[in-house]
Every structure is written in C-alpha cells, then in structure tokens.
Specification:
Length: 839
C-alpha cells in the first residue's frame, strides 16, 4: 500500500471514535432508488436526517441529489453504517464522507455493501460524481463493492479494495473496462501492511504496532479501548466479542450469578437500556418479539399468556417484494390482525391499480380489513385520492404507532389525500418519529397541539409538520367543525362520537333501567349534553375524558356514591370483577367500624378481596384505618397503575395511620401523577428502596414522596420482619420470597429461589422455565423447531441458523425464492448485474 496507507491512518487517529459526547445514532432508510418529493424537499429530508449523525443504524442511501451547489457537509460526521451505503442517481461532484470508517453490511443492496451507480447528468455530460473522498474507509465486514455508470468518477480503481477493505470472499465489480478489477480477499496481510504477529489490524508495520484482535479499521494503541472501530461490539469505548451477559458462572461459588455490568445488545453497541423505539428481549434490543412472545406494554418481550395477539407482517425486508403499496392482491394477509409487525403504506396506486405490478384498482371500503389493528410497529404512510376515501375510520382502533422503522424520519405521514377528517379516534401513542399531515386539500384538521403533546412520547424532539390542509375559515363556513359537545381539545371528525374530550358528559358503553349489569346493552359512545334519565349505568360527568369499557367500574368521583366517604359493605358489590377503577378508592376506619348515620355496618378486611382483580385506578388510592386482620394490601396484589388524574390534596397514593405490617403491592409498576404519602403506620416494616420509586413514579423529581414515621428499621430487624434473603437490594413488598421486587438469583413461578431445578432452564429476566417434554433429562434452554426453510438441523430457530437451506440462500439467510434483482445458481441467490437495464 505504501506511504498513502499510513497517511490514512494518521488522519484516522485525529478523532478517536470513543470520545464521550460525540456519538449520535440515526436511523437509516430502506428506499433504495426511490426519492421523496421534489429535489429541494428530498435534499432537506436527507439534511434533517443526518446532520450531526455519527452512527447510522441501517442503510445510508444518498440518492437523487441534484444540483452542483448542494452542500452535503451534513454527512461529514458519519463514522459507521450498520447496513449498506448507496450513492446513486446524483450529479454532484463528491460526497464528503471523509470520516466514514466502517460499513458492516448487515443489510446488502443486491449483494453489495457499497454501491455507486448512475451518478451523472444526462443533459450536461460534464456533470457527475468525480471523487468518493472516503479518506477514512478501512473496513467492509460483509458484502461486495459495485461501481456502475459513473462516467466522471476517478480514483476508485486506485484503492486496493482486496488488501485494505473487503472481507474474505467478497469482490469489486466495475463496469468500465480500463478500470475493471475483480478481487478475492485473503485475510492474511502481506508485506507493506501489518507485521505477521498481528491478529488483524495495526497502526504501523512493526510487531509493537499490532491492534487488539477486537479492533476493526485500526487503532491508536494495543488495547481494546484504543480501537478506531470495533470488529464486533462497542461496550462504552471497549471493543468486545460479546456484550456483557446478564449472568455468569462464579467458579468460586459454583453458581450462576447476576452480572452487575450486564448490558443490552443494540446493533454493534452495548447499551444500558434499549432505545425507546425498540423492545427488550432477554439481553437484546429487537424490533419485534420472537414467536410465542409479546410486548408486555413496558417494551419488554414476555411469553404470551394464552393465545398471542395476532401479528401480521407489514412492509419490511423480503415481505411483499415488488409492491410499494397495500393492494387488492395482498389485502387478505391482514384479516383479523391486531399488531402489524412492520409498516403500512397506502398510495394512489392502491385505488388506481398497477398493471405492471400485477394488481387492479381497489375500493377504499376494502381497507376496513384494518379495523382490528391496534398497533403498528413501524410507520403508517397514507397518500392518494379517491372520491370515497374521506376518512381513516378503518384505523379507528389503532392505539399505538411505535416508529421502530421510519419513512424519512416520519412515523405518521398523511400527504396529498382526499381525506376530509382523520378518524383516528383511538390513537394514544406515537413513540418515535415525526408527524407529517400536509397538502390534504379537503382535510378540516381540528386537533389541537395539546393533544399531540400527549400522544407523542417526546414532543420536543418529534417534530410535527401539519399545514397546507383546508383553511380553517373555509371549514367553518361549510360547517365542518367539531361537534359543540367537544371541548377545546378538538376532534378526529365531525360527529359527537369523535371528540377527543367531551365538553359535558360522555355516554357509556352499557345502559340498563336498573343496576343489574346482566341486562345491560351496548350503546354508541359519544359526547352528550346530559346523561339520559334512567338509562345511564355508568356515566362520567365532570370526568369526560374517561371512557368506560367492560371490566371498568366507577370509583369515588362526583355524583358517584353520594353520601359515602369510604368503601363499605353497602357498595362493595359494585366492584365485583372490576379491572379498572374509573375514579378513586377510599378505605377509612369507618369501613371496619361501620357508620349508622351513613347507613352501613362494620366490614371485615377479608371482604376487600373483591379488589383482587383491579389492575388500574385512574384517580387516587387512599388507605386509612386499623383492624387486627388488616395487615397488608394483598387485596391490591394485581394493581399495576395509579394514574392520578384526580388527587387527594396533591397525593395519588396515601397509606396513613393503618395497622399494616407490609404493603403487598407486588404488581405496582406506575404512579403517573401526584405525590406519595406512607406515614404513621406503627406496625409497617417498610422495605422498598428509593430506586424502586424512581422507576415507578413517572416524574420522580416532581412527585414528592413522604415515607416516614413508620416502624423503626432496627425493630423490624430485631423481630425478623425483613425481606427474604432471596430478594436483591431493591427490597420487597412483604416478607415472603414471592414478594421480592427483584430476585437476587432466579425466579420460579413467581417466587425467588436460589437456583433453577434440574428440569428447568433459566432465560430472560432470570426466570426458571420448565424443560420442553421433548428434551431428554436436563436442558440449557427451550427446545425449538428449526425454521421451516432449514434442512439437516440448525443452531437456532431463525432463517440464518440453518445447517443447509431447503430452497435458496441469500447472504446467510434461507428463503423460499430469490428476491427481486437476484437469480438462483446452485441454491445460492446471486445479484443480477445487467449493465444496460436502465438504457
């Protein structure tokens, strides 16, 4: 390589990759040769996407960049790309990717990790890509390099791709005869490179210049912390073969113990927690849970209880190849789906048809197949016009858009449609990505900003571009405004059933002429001026934002249980089989003593077991009073969430002057608003660590907790009323091993244990799982079937874990057939390089 090789490394050493505060992860794209909008709009999208970005999670696609004056300095900071780099259909002189060091090639573009093609101006022959300027590129871990039809490009044939950059078995393809060179990479580094003693990379020609074996690209010293990029994983500046696992074997104790330094794997990074747009599955950050698991609502994959929600694959890699939109040919794939794994795209071709793609026109009414969808893990893109396409009522049950895949930074796009209203009446969360609702000429948009601030997870970062729709003055003149029963938040449509919040009262889901729920019937849900006489079973006057569904019961709120100040034996039956309490729950000493003036007698604490089904309280929980049998709150053992939409003197949880000995709130996960008061409980041995409340409280800095003047800890210890030794340092809700907040070792059927039994294996979250009946004796993990595309066995249940493929292989994955752009040869899908295909 000569002196130029060492000059490149001298430049690389100027900025070390692990300098704290310089890393910014950006999500890449998967649009290949497609551009968005006019050239200026497309350029601005790219600029917004990659400004200050250093790490691209996915593909870097710089396509259709026109104009000699374009400033592309926004890509100058990019150092690593996990997928492929595509530079195409552009006539700019150079791409300043001067700091790009490594392309991992986890995704490939027709077999290539770097593809540079069609970069010229057909009208002005002198315009086109002239230089790559990849000053720092030193590593491509997987995939070929392709150059095609770049008539002005120089110097790419001076790079020793096989010696410097490409991995073993990959090659360079160039269309120009005087430049064409095909290399087969050999891992051994010859004279003029690194010393023979080096494992892989080096910073100079001498033996003392060898890099650590976990380094890619190069290094500034011999340690794993001196790498310029990591071959496998970057663990806070140290390159390692694997991220620190959740458990390790203690050779002194002869036990599997918890690893305090455990981290999650995110691409080639080791992170303390998974990014908000991904899920946690065991020690990995994933886009979707594996088969048999589902999102538990806290972005953690857990085993389904009973049947899993029906998941259907949306637009993603290798799915619906050749189609750019939902259409009548594939619509049947989405019948009865609850979760779309991937994205949904509806464009004008859906309604017009596309003979080239092989599908005919479709009526908007056919989109009603999506009425069961509650969650989309990727993005939702809506474009196109049709006289019957006037709202998105087919998505009326859509609650969550995760945004784990984005469409040029957007997770919700509604652009140039014929919509008159949105109709997204159930939408509650958009967890990642921006919102684009623009150029819908008939859309009377009536949703206030305050609503998006609630829906968007990070409203300060998730920009919303909502403009150039129908002018508000025209909507008013035409009478296309919100119902007068809606409050100032606005509406998703023009009916009283489409208010975001009611101005007055909300009709309930059930009605009856008496309080016998067995005779209740369903009615429409809408905002009304007043609840109809003798027809309301539950109503929410004054709490119009609360919708009542089956399993919900009204708690203490305005006009409910008038005259009663506490739960009591007279009203207890109203809470049978309740899952959600709409309002608050109050238990005071009068509940146990009775109150003749109020008309109820004393009650036993055992009767409070009626609350064992409650999972959520939308208001506050107030517990006071003493009774010899009232020693814990195990009746609330399934309570997960206290919303705090109503507060008791600023508090959402009050446990005051009770006879409780322990709390027993073993399922409590969230207190979303209000302070916590646990005081003057003389027998209460309180053993919950502050770190636990920091996780439970939504805003721990603002939600003050007053937890004091309970039983002294020294007395609790003297009496042996402490946490089980199977609990970790977070503490416990009670004194049994089943009441630990976290297990010190392992969990078996809800109880913390020292070790898993021989007929079990441990997996995610330190849980002991029974061995599969097919396993012979002990097991180290769940028995799984190989993927259906595997033959002769496998190492795991994925497409890439097969020993041999049943049909064809692309990269390391077994598929039913070769994707578009590939052809089969001896069971291997090879890219089709047809140089004159574009004319």
């Amino acid at each position: 390589m000569g002196s130029s090789f060492w000059m490149v490394f001298a430049g690389l050493c100027v900025l070390h990759m692990f300098t704290e505060g310089t890393e910014k992860v950006c999500l890449g794209t998967d649009k290949q040769l497609t551009s968005i909008g006019d050239p200026n709009h497309h350029y601005n999208l790219l600029k917004n996407l990659y400004t200050n970005c250093t790490y691209v999670d996915g593909n870097l696609e710089l396509v259709a960049i026109e104009g000699t004056g374009r400033d592309l300095s926004f890509v100058k900071d990019i150092r690593e790309v996990t997928g492929y780099v595509l530079i195409a259909l552009s006539d700019i002189s150079y791409i300043p990717l001067k700091n790009l060091r490594i392309i991992r090639g986890k995704n490939l573009y027709h077999g290539s990790a770097l593809s540079v093609k069609f970069n010229y101006n057909k009208n002005i022959p002198t315009l086109g890509l002239r230089e790559l300027r990849f000053n720092s590129l030193t590593e491509i871990l997987k995939g070929n390099v392709t150059f095609f039809n770049n008539p002005q490009l120089c110097y790419e044939n001076t790079i020793d791709w096989k010696g410097d950059i490409l991995a073993n078995g990959y090659y360079v393809i160039s269309d120009t005869k005087d430049k064409a060179r095909i290399f087969t990479r050999r891992r051994g580094l010859g004279p003029g490179y690194c010393s023979e003693q080096c494992d892989y990379r080096c910073k100079g020609p001498n033996p003392q210049d060898c890099c650590h074996k976990q380094c890619a690209v190069g290094c500034i010293g011999p340690l794993a912390t001196d790498c310029l990029a990591c071959l496998h994983y970057n663990n806070s500046g140290k390159c390692e073969e694997h991220c620190p696992p959740p458990f390790f074997y203690d050779t002194d104790l002869f036990q599997t113990v918890t690893n305090p330094d455990a981290k999650y794997t995110y691409g080639s990074l080791c992170v303390d927690e998974c990014p908000s747009h991904l899920l946690q599955e065991e020690e990995n950050c994933v886009k979707t849970c594996r088969k048999g698991n589902t999102d538990n609502g806290q972005r953690v994959c857990e085993k389904c209880v009973g049947a899993c929600p029906k998941k259907c694959t949306g637009f993603q890699k290798y799915q619906f190849a050749g189609y750019m939109t939902i259409n009548e040919a594939i619509l049947r794939n989405f019948t009865n789906c609850t979760i779309i794994e991937g994205s949904l795209v509806i464009t004008k071709q859906a309604f017009e048809g596309d003979l080239w793609a092989g599908f005919g026109p479709m009526s908007p009414s056919e989109l009603s197949v999506f009425s069961t969808v509650e969650e989309i893990t990727g993005y939702l893109q809506i474009e196109g016009q049709h006289e019957d396409f006037t709202d998105l009522s087919m998505f009326r049950n859509l609650k969550i858009i995760q945004g784990r895949e984005l469409y040029n930074q957007y997770s919700l796009v509604i652009y140039q449609t014929s919509l008159e209203s949105l109709g997204l009446t159930s939408l509650q969360q958009v967890n990642n990505g921006k919102v684009n609702i623009q150029k819908n000429r008939d859309l009377c948009y009536n949703v206030e900003d305050v609503v998006w601030n609630r829906i968007l997870k990070n409203p300060a970062e998730q920009e919303r571009q909502i403009n150039r729709n129908k002018k508000k003055t025209k909507c008013v003149v035409e009478g296309r405004t919100c119902s007068d029963q809606c409050n100032s938040d606005g509406c998703w449509g023009f009916e009283a059933s489409q208010c975001i919040k009611c101005a007055n009262c909300e009709a309930t889901t059930h009605y009856s002429d008496n309080r016998n729920t067995d005779n209740s019937q369903q009615v429409s849900e809408k905002c009304v001026g007043a609840c109809p006489k003798r027809s309301c079973f539950w109503f929410s006057c004054g709490f119009a934002d609360l919708q009542v569904f089956q399993g919900q019961c009204a708690g203490f709120q305005k006009n409910q249980f008038a005259g009663y100040m506490t739960i009591n034996e007279a009203i207890l039956r109203n809470f049978t089989n309740c899952t959600i309490i709409e309002g608050s729950l109050v238990i005071t000493k009068q509940a146990f003593e009775g109150d003749l003036w109020a008309g109820f007698g004393p009650m036993s604490p055992s009767e409070l077991s009626v609350f064992s089904t409650v999972e959520e309280i939308t208001g506050y929980l107030q517990i006071e009073g003493q009774h010899k049998d009232f020693t814990d709150l195990s009746m609330f053992r399934n309570l997960k969430i206290i919303q705090g939409r109503e507060l008791y003197n600023q508090y959402s949880l009050v446990i005051y002057q009770t006879s409780l000995e322990s709390l027993g709130l073993t399922s409590l996960q969230q207190v979303n608003n209000g302070k916590v008061n646990i005081r003057k409980n003389r027998d209460l041995c309180y053993n919950v660590d502050d770190a636990v409340w920091n996780r439970i409280l939504k805003n721990p800095a603002e939600q003050e907790r007053q937890i004091n003047r309970n039983k002294k800890k020294t007395k609790c210890v003297a009496e042996g009323r402490t946490c089980s030794d199977q609990c970790d340092s977070d503490g416990c809700w009670g004194f049994e091993a089943s009441q630990c907040i976290k297990c010190a070792n392992f969990e078996l059927d809800g109880t913390c244990v020292e070790s898993c039994e021989a007929t079990t294996h441990y997996s995610d979250n330190k849980q002991c799982r029974p061995c599969d009946p097919q396993c012979d004796g002990m097991c180290n993990g769940p028995c799984k079937d190989c993927h259906s595309e595997c033959v002769d066995g496998c190492v795991d249940d994925t497409r890439s874990g097969c020993f041999r493929c049943r049909h064809v292989k692309v990269g390391d994955e077994c598929l039913e057939e070769c994707p578009q752009g590939f052809q089969e040869k001896d069971g291997i899908c090879e890219p089709i390089f047809s140089w004159d295909i574009f004319g």
